[in-house]
Design goal:
Layout lengths: L1 H19 L8 H13 L4 E6 L6 H9 L16 E5 L4 E6 L4 E5 L4 H4 L12 E8 L2 H4 L2 E5 L7 H11 L4 E7 L6 H11 L7 E6 L6 H17 L11 E3 L2 H10 L2 H6 L2 H15 L4 H66 L1 H17 L3 H31 L16 E3 L16 E3 L4 H4 L1 H17 L6 H4 L3 H34 L6 E2 L5 H26 L21 E2 L14 H9 L25 H25 L5 H12 L7 H13 L8 H15 L8 H22 L2
Parallel strand pairs: 1-6, 1-7, 2-5, 7-8, 8-9
Antiparallel strand pairs: 2-6, 3-4, 3-5, 10-11, 12-13
Helix pairs in contact: 1-2, 1-12, 1-19, 2-12, 3-9, 12-14, 12-18, 12-19, 12-21, 13-14, 13-16, 13-18, 16-18, 20-21, 23-25, 24-25
Length: 740
């Protein structure tokens, strides 16, 4: 039993602590009910409450059972407080005032001062509790009677009665046989007892002796109906309906008239009551727990009403933050992919063998023709600037997106202009130059002059094409202009070696600095959300603890415990894309492939950025790798632009809203047959079925662009015209299907 009460104490503590999380008003009904049921859970006494409207004889019945006029009775509503009647060696009264003062008196005369209604029929405000002690053998068994104020008189009294009923193990509802079960009594039976888990109820009919015999028979039939309609949870074999004529019973007890007490119904009722209590008292937990369950359900409902909105708010915040983070991570990865690809292209271009293969011949010729500076500006610098800008633009994309560190421009300087020291001239030459003359800035033709200078230019191409500059030195000295040409080639090689070495070094450092640009800091969680997260955790912990305590006393609930909410872990963290270990081609790159599949329909953008240049003679044909690079950049730029738009409202249902808008317009904007034919024709141009998805439309468009882009046919006029016409059709078809 002690262990059981310890469990009840834990349950009571849980009820109190959980209800504290609700911040209930002290005078609210739920707060009062919680205090009452918690006190009742740990109360060792078996409490019997006598309940009913005023002037139904409640105090009279109790006095008859106690055998004296212990409690105040009168013809007007008298009981103005809840009076507890407990066992004591002699009759005495204890009154506790709200200010903590205790009044202890022998007898019960003091009740006339503190426990009855005043002249205005109001309860006293200064009384906290009233206790009467009596030397009655039934009370000595641990039973406690509770004489409640009459109902249906004042709201204040009704509230007190309603509160005290929750702390009663057994309720005796007194009925007036002359006006049996009024509407108010039926409402109280439902609202105050049944709905609050109070089902250990005994009905006692009073004043039946005041009716005529025929009326008594009719009333008894109605009483049986009342008793049968209320499913009281009493021990088997006991009725929940008794007749007691309270005033005759009291008079009989005061006179010691046993026969009169028996005929009043008091003896039969007392016997049944003692037997019922004897069965219920040892396991009073089974009586009290249904009331606990009813109150706990209200607490759980109130907690859920607080928990669920906060949970949704935090989830909404987390979803938005995660959406932002996901978008930023994808953007960072895409930008990093574009940047590293551009850097690799520039690094590849700066490799010395590549520079020599692509530029050495032209540079050496320009050097010999005194045009090196112009060549460097118009060719080498132009190509370098294009590659540098291609790389830098990604860092500016990152800065615009993440606003971290502003990027620096990538500047790879050119070495000093090459200088050629001419060798001693042969005896048989007519050159005007002197041995050891220095040609600066790519001008040696003016030193050599005439046919010899022209021969040097020719020899440069000859030597590089024939690759004989590494052959026997004697062969190279067969002619003076070949020796000078060899010097030009060597000087240019030194120039590009210096340019390559310095450029690669600058590029490596620039790539390292880019890590400060292509990254983002996870935002700090707002203090308001942090506070709500902590508050939610407290509420959920209280809810879960209450569930556990209820389960310990075999009170099951349909509610499931809340899972612990995840803490915000993104604070003070930084995200930077990590380099891939294996470099993949654009066709096999999973990031690009994923973006190709996910690019939204609403972009609707055609590949105008890779349209044919005005002058096709600018570069040779075909150039599929350049078309592929431009198309790759277009896709990355499209995806980044889409993500920027998404960042304005992360987690928004943009696509769904557009689809909804389009579907809403459909009934009022039925497509004409001409429009349907255009759509069908567009599918045919792209080589698709009419039920193809947007992803399939985009994939088909990509394939056709790579196959028919005019850049591939710049030196083939007939095919170029055909490709331009084909791309015009493809672009129109893509536009139609994107806007469909």
């Amino acid at each position: 039993m002690q262990q059981q009460y310890e469990g009840y104490k834990d349950l009571a503590d849980s009820l109190k602590s959980t209800s504290a999380l609700l911040n209930l008003e002290r005078k609210s009904q739920l707060h009062q009910d919680i205090i009452t049921i918690c006190n009742h859970l740990v109360n060792p006494s078996f409490r019997i409450a006598v309940f009913g409207p005023f002037n139904h004889g409640k105090s009279t019945l109790l006095n008859a059972m106690l055998g004296n006029r212990t409690l105040p009775i009168d013809l007007i509503p008298t009981t103005g407080a809840s009076i507890s009647v407990k066992y004591g060696s002699d009759v005495r009264t204890r009154i506790m005032l709200v200010d903590g003062i205790e009044i202890y008196r022998s007898g019960t005369e003091i009740l006339q001062q503190f426990a009855i209604l005043d002249g205005n029929r109001q309860m006293r405000k200064d009384v906290a509790s009233v206790e009467v002690f009596c030397p009655h053998p039934f009370l000595e068994t641990g039973v406690e009677f509770l004489d409640l104020p009459g109902t249906n008189d004042r709201d204040e009294q009704d509230n007190l009665v309603r509160e005290q009923l929750l702390g009663a193990d057994l309720v005796i509802q007194l009925l007036d046989a002359r006006k049996l079960m009024t509407l108010g009594e039926r409402e109280n039976l439902r609202d105050w007892l049944l709905d609050r888990g109070i089902k250990t109820v005994i009905f006692v009919a009073n004043f039946l002796n005041l009716l005529e015999p025929d009326e008594q028979k009719q009333v008894q039939n109605r009483l049986l109906f009342v008793a049968e309609s209320f499913r009281a949870e009493l021990p088997p074999g006991f009725s929940n309906l008794y007749r007691v004529d309270a005033l005759p019973a009291l008079r009989a007890r005061l006179k010691g008239d046993v026969a009169a007490a028996n005929s009043s119904g008091l003896a039969a009722f007392e016997t049944a009551l003692q037997n019922i209590v004897g069965i219920l008292q040892p396991d009073r937990g089974s009586v009290r727990l249904p009331r606990v369950q009813a109150i706990a359900s209200q607490i759980q409902y109130s907690l859920k009403a607080k928990i669920d909105p906060i949970t949704l708010e935090i989830k909404s915040f987390d979803d938005k933050q995660n959406s932002k983070i996901e978008i930023k991570q994808k953007a960072a990865n895409l930008i990093y992919k574009g940047f590293t690809t551009s850097i690799e292209e520039l690094r590849d271009w700066l490799e010395l063998p590549k520079l020599l293969t692509k530029y050495q011949a032209d540079a050496a010729v320009a050097l010999a023709e005194n045009k090196f500076k112009d060549w460097q500006t118009n060719t080498l610098k132009k190509d370098l600037n294009q590659l540098q800008l291609s790389a830098v633009k990604w860092l500016y994309q990152a800065y615009e997106f993440f606003q971290e560190e502003r990027p620096q421009d990538l500047l790879i300087p050119f070495p000093s202009e090459p200088q050629v020291i001419l060798p001693p001239k042969p005896n048989n030459t007519d050159d005007l130059s002197e041995p050891g003359s220095i040609a600066v800035g790519g001008g040696i033709g003016w030193l050599l002059g005439g046919p010899v200078g022209a021969a040097v230019v020719g020899s440069i191409s000859y030597l590089l094409n024939k690759n004989i500059q590494k052959q026997d030195d004697q062969l190279a000295k067969e002619s003076y202009h070949q020796e000078v040409a060899k010097l030009c080639i060597s000087t240019i090689e030194d120039y590009f070696s210096s340019f390559s070495s310095q450029g690669l070094s600058i590029l490596t450092e620039y790539e390292r600095q880019s890590e400060k640009v292509i990254c983002f800091q996870f935002s700090q969680e707002p203090g308001e959300i942090t506070n709500k997260r902590e508050s939610l955790q407290l509420l959920q912990n209280g809810f879960n603890r209450l569930l556990r305590e209820l389960e310990k006393v075999k009170i099951l609930s349909n509610d499931q415990p809340y899972k612990e909410i995840p803490k915000y872990t993104n604070t003070n963290r930084k995200y930077s894309p990590q380099p891939e270990r294996v470099k993949l081609s654009p066709e096999k790159d999973p990031v690009i492939k994923q973006q190709q599949e996910k690019t939204a329909k609403n972009s609707g953008t055609r590949v105008e950025s890779v349209s044919p240049p005005p002058s096709p003679k600018a570069s040779p044909s075909p150039r599929p790798e350049e078309v592929e690079a431009k198309f790759r950049d277009w896709e990355l730029n499209e995806e980044i632009a889409w993500m920027k738009a998404e960042m304005q409202s992360p987690g928004s249902q943009t696509s769904k809203q557009q689809n909804t808008t389009q579907s809403n317009k459909a009934p009022s904007q039925t497509k004409t047959q001409t429009e349907k034919d255009k759509i069908t024709r567009a599918y045919g141009i792209l080589g698709l079925q009419t039920n193809a998805s947007q992803a399939e439309v985009k994939q088909a468009y990509r394939t056709l662009v790579k196959k028919w882009h005019p850049d591939l046919f710049v030196n083939q006029p007939q095919l170029l015209k055909q490709a331009q016409e084909k791309m015009h059709l493809v672009n129109d078809a893509y536009t139609i299907l994107s806007d469909k």
